[in-house]
């Protein structure tokens, strides 16, 4: 049996690592990992959201249940609109707890609201928005985006409300918005 020299092993390892690095770079680029996250300053908005409120552990299965139900209502055209998750900042919450309103932002008038759901109205004079179209595997996490929105609000001297909108689209893209206080 022929033995491979140390130099040949080193070359094989080097080129294998180089090829793997190139493949990972290409995949990350293809999924949109290098897309820049820009924050836009927009004007007033009014929004009606039909959904369900949740307050508790962020690992609760109820969150997934509400999300799945709302998504199904959008995909099945029971409610005309977009899937929306509103995250509220609540100082009373313990570590690992969240306060959410999960539902559908209505695009048309709706005469019927499902029995267990409530209708909430949101208004603002100005808002900060970021559009995320990259694949969810390489998408920045919501906390990083919220931090960018707060930094932009500070630079524009905008006082933000205590909630953040996440609008989810069927193609896995989403919009994250921070609204000013009225």
Describe this structure in words.
The protein has helices at residues 6-30, 61-75, 142-156, and strands at residues 40-42, 45-57, 81-88, 97-106, 118-124, 127-132, 160-168, 174-180. By secondary structure, it is an alpha+beta fold. A hairpin with an 8-residue loop joins β3 and β4 (97-106). The protein is elongated. It has three helices and eight strands, in the order αββαββββαββ. The chain has an eight-stranded antiparallel β-sheet with strand order 1-6-8-7-3-4-2-5, covered by helices on one side.
- The proportion of strand residues reads 25-35%
- How far apart the termini lie comes to 80 Å
Q: Structural class of the helices, strands and pairings?
A: alpha+beta
Average pLDDT for all residues: 89
| SSE topology string | HEEHEEEEHEE
Radius of gyration: 22 Å
The portion of residues assigned to helices is 25-40%
Low-confidence spans: pLDDT under 50, at least 5 residues?
Answer: none
Q: Would you report the number of β strands? A: 8
Number of helices: 3
Shape: elongated
Quick recap of the structure?
With 182 residues, this protein is of the alpha+beta class. The protein is 30% helix and 35% strand.
Identify the notable features of this structure and list them briefly.
single chain; 182 residues; alpha+beta; 3 helices; 30% helix
Topology, please?
Layout: H1 6-30, E1 40-42, E2 45-57, H2 61-75, E3 81-88, E4 97-106, E5 118-124, E6 127-132, H3 142-156, E7 160-168, E8 174-180
Antiparallel strand pairs: 1-6, 2-4, 2-5, 3-4, 3-7, 6-8, 7-8
């Amino acid at each position: 049996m022929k033995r491979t020299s140390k130099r040949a092993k080193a070359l094989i390892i080097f080129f294998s690592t180089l090829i793997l690095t190139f493949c990972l770079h290409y995949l990350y680029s293809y999924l949109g990992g290098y897309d820049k996250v820009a924050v836009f300053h927009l004007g007033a908005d009014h929004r009606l959201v039909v959904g369900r409120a949740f307050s508790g552990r962020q690992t609760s299965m109820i969150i997934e249940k509400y999300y799945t139900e709302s998504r199904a209502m959008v995909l099945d055209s029971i409610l005309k609109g977009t899937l929306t998750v509103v995250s509220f900042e609540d100082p009373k919450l313990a570590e690992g707890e969240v306060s959410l309103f999960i539902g559908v932002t209505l695009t048309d008038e709706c005469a019927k609201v499902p029995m267990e759901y409530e209708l909430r109205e949101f208004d603002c004079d100005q808002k900060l928005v970021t559009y995320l179209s990259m694949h969810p595997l390489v998408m920045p996490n919501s906390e990083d985006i919220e931090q960018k929105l707060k930094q932009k609000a500070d630079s524009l001297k905008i006082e933000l409300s205590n909630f953040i909108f996440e609008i989810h689209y069927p193609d896995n893209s989403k919009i994250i918005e921070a609204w000013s206080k009225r």
